[in-house]
Amino acid sequence: MDANAAKLIGAGLAAIGMGAAAIGVGTIFGNFLSGALRNPSAADGQFTRAFIGAALAEGLGIFAFVVALILLFVK
Amino acid sequence: MAAGGAVIDPIHQFEIKKITNITVGGLDLSFTNASLFMVIALGVISLIMIWGTSARAIVPGRLQSIAEMLYEFIEDTVQGTMGKSGRKFLPLVFSLFMFVLVCNMVGLIPGTFTVTSHIIVTFALAAVVILTVLIYGIMKHGTHFFGLFVPSGVPKPLLLLLTPIEIISFVSRPISLSMRLFANMLAGHIALKVFAGFILMMTAAGGVAVALSPLPLLMIVALTALEFLVAALQAFVFSVLTCIYLNDALHPGH
Lengths: 75, 254
Known about the structure:
The structure holds two protein chains of two kinds.
Chain A: H1 3-38, H2 40-73
Helix pairs in contact in A: 1-2
Chain B: E1 18-20, E2 23-24, E3 27-28, E4 31-32, H1 33-54, H2 62-82, H3 90-107, H4 119-141, H5 156-205, H6 208-212, H7 214-250
Antiparallel strand pairs in B: 1-4, 2-3
């Protein structure tokens, strides 16, 4: 296989990781929202924690994105 | 692809250009566009905070409200995650938050340069945080600080497995902290450039594509709105994670 083609396929495969991170972030905010609708008075106090969880989950998707970028642009 | 077949390079916007050449003893200390926008960010922060708090009115004006809201927001975050003893880190967290926020926001103005889209800048910020955690933690708690890596109430054989995991997670903190901010900014700006490239490609293609070419433009407007949210959110996430890591230095041990 052409090395360049393999790079592009690898970058596309790395994009799957971003989708997986999207599932994680969606789960966190979905559960936060369902909890917040049950007990709205407690929601404000847990807002920061929801964002921390989302940031940590998102960070792993970001690693996948960086892998794709390295494959595409680093010569 | 532009009309003439030239390639639009979405990475080109992150290129560092020299404004004045300064070389000190073989070291390249040139004033670049990155340095220029850091100075601009510093100017904007100074303007908001110094001018905003100079009046000290009981009923705050617009600028004073902005300054007070930003300060109280970070104060609440610091107190919420670290408690009363965390107040000594408030200047550090507030400076980091303001610098990241203003750099992100300034970078969203078309034609400007985003300082935080360079990993070396964000890594330097993350290194400041982690070095503060290490130095303060070891100074205050001595060897007890390393209890951070040994979870309590765990059977001995399991510790052999858990301690390396804890150490790896601690070491990866500065990497993930800097990578998150850098990659978010980079991804957002690349996405904007890619959609701008679509407009050129569609107008060059002719036919139905020309009629549809305003669609990517609408997408750019929506993406810019999203990027403003991301810019503020990432500054917030950066400062919250800083608070959590500093909390480990204040209160180590599980």
